[in-house]
Amino acid sequence: MSEDSEKEDYSDRTISDDDESDEDTLIKFLDEDIHHCALLTADALGDPFFPRTTQILLEYQLGRWVPRLRKPRDLYGVSSSGPLSPTRWPYHCEVIDEKVKHIDWTPLFPEPVYVPTGLEIEPAYSNTSEDTVVYLAEDAYKEPCFVYSRVGGNRTPLKQPADNCDNTLMFEARFESGNLQKVVKVAEYEYQLTVRPDLFTNKHTQWYYFQVTNTRADTAYRFTIVNFTKPASLYNRGMRPLFYSEKEAQLHRVGWRRIGEQIKYYKSQQGRDGRQLFSLTWTFQFPHSQDTCYFAHCYPYTYSNLQDYLSAIHSDPVRSKFCKIRVLCPTLARNMVYVLTITTPWKNADGRRRKAVILTARVHPGETNSSWMMKGFLDYLLGDSRDAQLLRDTFVFKVVPMLNPDGVIVGNYRCSLSGRDLNRNYTSVLKESFPSVWYTRNMIHRLMEKREVILYCDLHGHSRKENIFMYGCDGSYRSKTKSLYLQQRIFPLMLSKNCPDKFSFPACKFNVQKSKEGTGRVVMWKMGIRNSFTMEATFCGSTLGNKRGTHFNTRDLESIGYHFCDSLLDYCDPDRSKYYQCLKELEEMEKHMSLEKTVDDSDTSVIEIAVDLESSSRGSDSSESNDCQTYLVQLTSQVTNKKKHLKTKKERNAAIASHQNATKEVCGEDNEKQILGETSSDMTARTTKKAPNCLLKTYLSYAAQLKKQSKRMHSFSKQKD
After folding, report:
1. What is the model's pTM?
2. How distant is the alpha carbon of residue 471 from its chain centre?
3. What does the longest C-alpha to C-alpha distance in the chain come to?
4. Catalytic-labelled residue, pool 248, 536, 596, 608
5. Starting from the edge strand earliest in sequence, which strands make up the sheet with 355-361, in order?
6. CB-based contacts of 19-27 (< 8 A; 24+ apart in sequence)
7. Secondary structure element (H or E) that encloses residue 541, with its range
8. Strand ranges of the sheet holding 182-187, from the earlier edge strand across to the other edge
9. Cα end-to-end distance, the chain, whole Å
10. Which residues pair with 192 in a beta bridge?
11. What is the pLDDT of residue 398?
12. How far is it, in rounded angstroms, from Cα 376 to Cα 359?
């Protein structure tokens, strides 16, 4: 299809910004005019001159019928009074009628990670005929690939799990986002579990979410999942499974919480295909007898949760004015992929010059923490704070909150119903196979023709690393100046300062591997979006600040959305003090790493690996600092003062930081000790003032320790020789 014909194809596009601005006026005009004439559909007349359609209305005017198009249907796919379209499943999937719902709850105190005692055991199972199979889901293997979908899935009577009157636990996972394939009772209170691979694949066994009933209180049960495929896991670093009790929710308003003792992740037997498998085991005592409980890998966030959230926005008379919800495209199973356009409606031409920010999430369905970060981002951006209003006045936000609803519905971990990873197919031309990423790329391409896109961020979850961090794209080979090379690191550095107990800048990486060239981050960067990121949130918790050694809960994940907005204000602040401060700090890091490389290249390699900065000195030279100064002058000349200037928290912090930089560029040793001795409340208040230089101090100190250790080892080696 040519470019011109593609632009005329209505099915390949979403509502443009210009269409949205005129939509309310047009609908108002039609509503007023429609009452002055009699209307019939073309199909009702039976006239062969008119096509059989319900989209043409016939008005009787001046003695004749005049055709015109019906008012456009709501592209959101839901009327103001009706429910959202129901979720659709592959036709062979068995689905129970019960709708699973959980309350929102945040623990009163941080939940610590598990500390191994050394007494954990590694159960080894050999399947025998004496073992009792208490749950088996075979429906996933009825088809080798996706065929078609139905509302509610399989229409045949469901096979009920074994119903024993003894103390055997009852399991269920045939609900939205549920994942459990088989359960074998190997002892009176011990169960061997197998999770289902992603549909139409034989791999990606990571996500689990299932129901347990017929419980007995104060009895130690052991659960062992035996078919994980990743050799490294956060369960080896203290991560605990999540648990939910319906009786606890009813009696005490307690929701999801971390549980488990004797937790161990270990190498087990080989699978049928010869691949090495790994097992996760834990013990637990249920708080109530005859309770309905749930276990999960991470806090569930289903497609129905998203639809309920969007329905609330759609019916809100305030938020719906600046948040337009549309359908980007249908999926393979004909579930809707939604796109949100968030901005203050403009009344003049100034609004057309607004820059764009793009956020997407849930391309990998098992990474539910990305949806909680997205929820926090939307809650803040759609709120009534002055900062949120300033963001809506300044930018046009395009948000795709769930890229892979099919995978979310069926309980996949990574793939869509095509059996492929969507985040490796942004370059694909197969629109029918990968519709959500194809339409997302197409939408962004059209958006870039109208306005500048200053930032793209795809939200993810990470199964092997703690904290929250970003992956960017290394632009060193695209530019000869170090300033442009460092520029893409500024936003992540700002985010680490605004969120020092959750976000780790040293864990961020800025490179483009060949295997990642089909990801959204790399494709958008090659399309011309300079700040193109993947933001990864751990499934576990933090190793930083006051959060060190504790799990993240939903409120922690939602707070990242707020800090993202906060950092966006910092990054685009007309007062460039924070921007220059971050750029200067990055230069100092670069100079130090270059110096270390000159003194001892092997030591530098150790340091780089230790702080996980991926060779930041590559492609630049510390002698090129003049290029950075020239670039700052150019930036200053481009700054305009036409933006609304509110006295927000960040602007006040910027003034404080600017004053500090004018008096002292690097915090001294005494100041550093003073900072370390502050209380947590004081630390929070002074984060913006002290964090930048202290991060550099910490890095330099850590590098020096590693260098000394390397020299001692070298000296010891010589003495031994």
Report:
1. 0.77
2. 13
3. 110
4. 536
5. 323-330, 336-342, 395-400, 355-361, 453-462, 532-538, 468-472, 509-510
6. 20/324, 20/341, 21/345, 21/346, 21/351, 27/71
7. strand 541-542
8. 132-136, 182-187, 190-194, 220-228, 276-285, 261-270
9. 71
10. 184, 224
11. 98
12. 12
Give the H or E element holding residue 193: strand 190-194
Mean pLDDT, the chain, whole residue set: 80
138 is catalytic: no
Angle between helices 625-638 and 577-599 (to 10 degrees): 170
Which amino acid is present at 673?
K
According to DSSP H, which parts of 178-302 are helical?
246-252
Phi–psi pair at 585, nearest 5 degrees: -65, -40
Alpha-carbon span 355 to 10, nearest angstrom: 25
Taking a C-beta distance cutoff of 8 angstroms, is the pair 236, 281 a contact?
A: no
Residue type, 285: Q
pLDDT of residue 345: 92
What is the distance between the alpha carbons of residues 352 and 477, in angstroms, rounded to a whole number?
Answer: 33
What is the spatial distance between Cα 150 and Cα 697, in angstroms, rounded to a whole number? 59
The continuous run of DSSP H or E covering 326 comes out as: strand 323-330
What's the average model confidence in pLDDT over 120-128?
85
Q: How far apart are CA 703 and CA 699, in angstroms?
A: 6
Q: How confident is the model at residue 108 (pLDDT cuts 50, 70, 90)?
A: very high
Q: Return the exposure string of 242-272: e unless at least 16 CB atoms fall within 10 Å of the residue's CB, then b.
A: bbbbbbbbeeeebbbbbbbebbbbbebeeee
Encode 629-641 in three state secondary structure: HHHHHHHHHHCCC
3-state DSSP assignment of residue 286: strand
Give the 3-state DSSP-derived string for 257-277, with helices as H, strands as E and coil as C: EECCEEEEEEEEEECCCCCEE
Distances (CA, A) of 581 to 140, 490, 496, 567, 575: 55, 10, 14, 14, 11
DSSP three-state, residue 539? coil
CA angle 507, 437, 87 (to 5 degrees): 105
Instruction: For residues 510 and 213, give the distance between their C-alpha atoms in angstroms, rounded to a whole number.
Output: 47
Residue 408 is encoded by which pair of tokens?
Answer: 């979310």
DSSP at 280: E
Q: Count the neighbouring beta carbons within 10 Å of the beta carbon of residue 405.
A: 26
Q: Which residues contact 490 (CB under 8 A, 6 or more apart)?
A: 571, 579, 582, 583, 586
DSSP assignment of 292-313: -EEEESS----HHHHHHHHHHH
